[in-house]
Design brief:
There is one protein chain. The protein is α/β, with parallel strands linked by helices and about 250 residues long. Helix content is about 20%, strand content about 25%. Strands 1-13-12-11-14-9-10 form a seven-stranded mixed sheet. It has a four-stranded antiparallel sheet with strand order 2-8-7-4, with no helix packed on it. A hairpin with a 2-residue loop joins strand 5 and strand 6. The longest helix has 12 residues.
Length: about 250
Amino acid sequence: MSKVIKIKKGLNIPLLGDAEKILQSAPRADVYSVKPPDFHGLAPKMLVKEGDKVKAGTPLFYDKYNESILFTSPVSGTFTSLVRGEKRRIMEVNITADTDNEYVHFSMGDPASMSREEITGGLLKSGLWPVLRQRPYSVIARPGDSPKGIFVSCFRSGPVAPDLDFVVNGQETEFQKGLDVLARLTDGKVHLGVGAGSTTSGAFLQARGVEVHHFSGPHPAGNVGIQIHHIDPVNKGELVWTLDVQDVIVI
């Protein structure tokens, strides 16, 4: 095992219990909402009107400051309402779901044989690009930038957090393919932060084309910002990208 990075300052919050390792299929909701305020710095411009039919993957709105960044519908259904807040700020885009999903189909390919531009274009069109966050500021990454590294925290140190070993179980192939995509988006390295002595998933420890770093110590050892600080700090004029394990699988 590589050198363990020990976090000394912090606190393991004394809350009883753990997230149960039970996988269940959530019942299909009647209404799904996409919330622009969840994305720092986003100024949404609508592409659909109330009453429009959409498929899963249909663009709903784009970022006013970067028109190539699309936000797509998670389900097929009807765009039924737009919720506005102060100064007419868009707070929610609500979709009343159909009984069964219809999908917009996007092109697929092998990351090893695709250019960075092709991969970026696919992530933008499918609405997956916003899962990539830039540090500093934790805003949506800009497609034209080249980060010096991409970071994925593969464990959580906070109380009652999900066990990411359990999350990735059975989806190891998809996780590795997602890492292959990320490797094409940076001239630097893809870094995985894992918990020392606790991570057993081969998807993390045996991941290819990445650097695996082991962390021990109290919360917030599992926070990606702490891991960036100890692995490759962001200096003036530099930037890195981050995303979650679940996002890597979806990609």
